[in-house]
Amino acid sequence: MNIAIVGTGYVGLVSGACFAEMGVNVVCVDINATKIEQLRQGIIPIYEPGLEEMVARNQNAGRLTFATDLGEVIDGVDIVFSAVGTPPDAEGAADLSQVLEVARTFGRHINRYTMLVTKSTVPVGTAHRVTEVVREELQRRGEDIPFDVASNPEFLKEGAAIKDFMTPDRVIVGTESDRARKIMARLYKPFMLSGERMIFTDTASAEMIKYAANSMLATRISFMNDIANLCEKVGANVNMVRKGIGADTRIGRKFLYPGCGYGGSCFPKDVRALIKTAEQNGCRMRVLEAVEQVNEEQKGILFEKLSRHYEGDLRGKTITLWGLAFKPETDDVREAPSLVLIEKLIAAGCRIKAYDPVAMPSAEAVVGDRITYCRDMYDAAIDSDAIILITEWKEFRMPSLSVLERTMRHRVILDGRNIYDSEEMAEHGFTYYKIG
Hints:
The chain folds into 3 domains: 2-201, NAD(P)-binding Rossmann-like Domain (Rossmann fold, 3-Layer(aba) Sandwich); 211-297, Rossmann fold (3-Layer(aba) Sandwich), CATH 3.40.50.720; 299-434, Rossmann fold. The chain is built from 18 helices and 14 strands. It has helices spanning 10-21, 33-40, 51-60, 70-73, 97-109, 126-141, 161-166, 178-188, 203-234, 238-246, 267-280, 286-298, 301-309, 337-347, 360-367, 377-381, 401-407, 422-427, and strands at 2-6, 25-29, 64-67, 79-82, 114-118, 147-151, 171-174, 198-201, 318-322, 351-355, 372-373, 386-389, 412-415, 431-434. The strands form 3 sheets. Strands 3-2-1-4-5-6 form a 6-stranded parallel β-sheet, sandwiched between helices. A 6-stranded parallel β-sheet has the order 11-10-9-12-13-14. A two-stranded parallel ribbon has the order 7-8.
């Protein structure tokens, strides 16, 4: 089978490489000529474990190629996947301009039956808009070429995207066409050999599933952060509470970890987009409105704890940040709690030293030279008045407290992910703060 994937961002590039790994002939298309040339040279624009090797392997095998014009390659493919960006507009709604432009290009150039599959996260009803746009383009051409539109939302976790794609827990396909169902079932069959996990729905339901799934996960995070903050007030241990409620099989243990707020390219954007979709349809997502409010407040909680420790006087203090990415195994700093914390610390007159294994270039592109980027976690801790753990990278899990004792100015550690042991910190003379 031959497919094209428009958009070489996180979703498009990972999807293209994984389909190619299973023997599909894939051409990844992007209008950014510089990006395409870099990909041809093996330069990967994102950090994802295993992706660089997979791209190179399939390029060498001839199954994965890159192009800048969908119109030039569309005659040779059976399916076009749209994996372009849907950034939030000023009001929080998803911007569909790139999605609709792909649909226009599709309608201008198809000459035989072809499928157009939306993989981008889009509001409910987008598939119908895409169908209308394609039909308009065909009418302008005076053509009556058969086509189908489907929705195939992605559920990839940054840092584990390849595993998620190769062994998915479910594949959602929304379409009203039996022909499209058969084509998509054939395409995904190599990924289903260990068990059938495809769920076929109508397009509106498929579009809603993506938003609802991310919103539920975001809700669990904000709920646990609310519980953690209450535990701190009443003297309960949030880790014990988390284990206790997670043991209930109706609740489960996943996404019940308190922290300093969620970030990334999906949860914040998708929660806001679903809230906006509800508004446009005369509804209110009152739970999600609270989820978003809790999360924004949670991003400031580490600053509040630090400020209380130093009685509101942070001017001139040197603060170390361990981690900048919104989560481990990615260089993504979009909506990251670190960015909120950095702005608050700078406004308070602090000097900031930071270390992240892979996300420092991404952070520097946003923050610039207003903070100091260090060569390792211990270099960042020299002469520090406090260490703030933001991202739970593995190398941060067992720090040498004896080294920190000798190099820090003051023994203060704020743990934004609750990965350290309070008693061990106390034994080494550290003042230790966690979430809850």
